[in-house]
Amino acid sequence: MHDELRAVLDLMPDEALVRRAGREFWVGHLHGQPVVAVLSRIGKVAAATTATLLITEFNCSRILFTGVAGGLHAAVRVGDVVVARELLQHDMDASPLFPRWEVPLTGRSRWPADAAWTTLVEAAAQRALQAAGAQAQAALGLAGRGPRLHTGLIVSGDRFVSTQAESAALRTALPDALAVEMEGAAVAQVCADFGVPLAVVRTISDRADEHAALDFSRFVAEVASRYSARLVEAVMDALNAGESAASG
Ligand code: ADE
């Protein structure tokens, strides 16, 4: 979302704008690491195009996808963070020709995130959550427990899930799904095609029910930008630490 990108661009001292396919790619550095920052845009096709351009036009060697998602699993609450280990397109269904959710001609319905990159990003997300979590809780007036980090399956589809009936149906069909959004699994498919490591981190903005649209808007404006920026900073610091350890 725009608020999230703005917060990331504020951390880049030298960003230069490159326009491609109606998108604005910001090329520069963040905590010393060479980066390209861009809005994925919304929906699977748009995000797949953006990911393809990052790889083919900008030679990105790995992708970090941050954003928000609706919580599906009972344990996943607003303000929590979900790191994807696997991604699936919940609206892909070419049955009876292919099993439900399988992407035809790939033999695959679940697309793994890159294990090593995701482990680094998960540790950074944990640190970022400690920093931004208390602030977020206060901003949203969330009572009770602090925000938690979950790791597992994220499902994607070209629908904003905003009814109890639809989120319950997803929970029944895919009991291990933690969160639902509109892009991650498409980007995972592109990254698998090109052999580019992907990590996906989503902050939970809503519970994919009748309150979703309102919760989502409020969350994006008040909290998501802070989360994304802290996460990106923590990931860059981890990369810098890894590089100095390797050269030291
Ligand atoms: N992104 C954030 N909340 C969502 C929802 N409820 N459905 C789909 N994508 C989302």
Task: Kindly describe this structure.
There is one protein chain. The protein is of the alpha/beta class and 248 residues long. The protein has a single domain (64-247), classed as 3-Layer(aba) Sandwich (Rossmann fold). Helices cover 42% and strands 24% of the residues. The chain is built from six helices and nine strands. A five-stranded mixed β-barrel has the order 4-8-7-5-9, surrounded by four helices. Strands 1-2-3 form a three-stranded antiparallel beta sheet. Helix 1 runs parallel beside helix 6, helix 2 runs parallel beside helix 5 (184-194) and helix 3 crosses helix 6 (212-247). The longest helix is centred in the last third of the chain and has 36 residues, at 212-247. The protein is globular, with a radius of gyration of 17 Å. The termini are far apart. The protein binds adenine (ADE).
